[in-house]
Structures are given as structure tokens and as C-alpha cells.
Design goal:
The protein is of the alpha+beta class and 108 residues long. The chain has a single domain (4-96), classed as Ybab, Chain: A (2-Layer Sandwich). It is 58% helix and 16% strand. The chain has helices at residues 4-30, 59-63, 66-96, and strands at 32-36, 42-47, 52-57. A three-stranded antiparallel sheet has the order 1-2-3. Strand 2 and strand 3 form a beta hairpin.
């Protein structure tokens, strides 16, 4: 019929996983990833929660036209987010055993 022992074990495992995910979440908040544009005109530091921590623009960036500046900013920001997302996903999968796949869970 219904095995209460297995259900209890599954609930306990889920609680442990939740605790581990919170721990990873806190670690990600403290993790920083650097991303630079090709010629270092734009330097971005982002944390594992996809929050930009710092942004540095070189003098050569200031000399570029507006269109080039926008493209450099967008590509560097997108690269930084991509790096942080991949690392976050890697750390989450380590806790969940890959059960989440590529799911993006808000707040994690």
C-alpha cells in the first residue's frame, strides 16, 4: 500500500536539499566573476546573484562613438551574466544531483 517510511525519508531529503540550496545561495552572493571586453575597454564584476558589483570604463571607451559604446556595454554585461549563470547552475546542480536540469528558479 502506502509506505510512510519512504515518504518520511523523501521529506527529510527534500529538507536537507533545501538547506544546502540556501547555503549555496549565500555562497553565490559572495562569489564574484570578472568579465572584460575584448580590449579591456569595459570591465565588469558581477556576483552569483547576477548583480553588477562594479563597472570600469577605460579612456579608449570614452573615445569610441555612442554606438560602439553601447555595443561594448551590452556584450560585456551579457557575457558577465552568462558566466555567473553557468557557475550558479553548476553549483546548484552539485546540490540537486542535476535534478533541476537547466531550470531557472527565481530567488535561487
Amino acid at each position: 500500500m502506502f509506505d510512510k517510511g519512504n515518504m518520511f525519508n523523501a521529506l527529510r531529503q527534500a529538507q536537507n536539499m533545501k538547506k544546502q540550496l540556501k547555503k549555496v545561495n549565500k555562497q553565490l552572493e559572495k562569489s564574484y566573476f570578472d568579465c572584460n571586453s575584448k580590449n579591456n575597454e569595459v570591465q565588469i564584476k558581477i556576483n552569483g546573484k547576477m548583480k553588477i558589483i562594479s563597472l570600469k570604463l577605460s579612456e579608449s571607451f570614452s573615445n569610441a562613438n555612442e554606438s560602439a559604446q553601447q555595443q561594448l556595454l551590452l556584450s560585456t554585461i551579457n557575457n558577465a551574466i552568462n558566466i555567473a549563470q553557468k557557475e550558479s547552475q553548476k553549483q546548484m546542480n552539485a546540490v540537486t544531483g542535476g535534478m533541476l536540469g537547466d531550470m531557472k528558479i527565481p530567488g535561487l
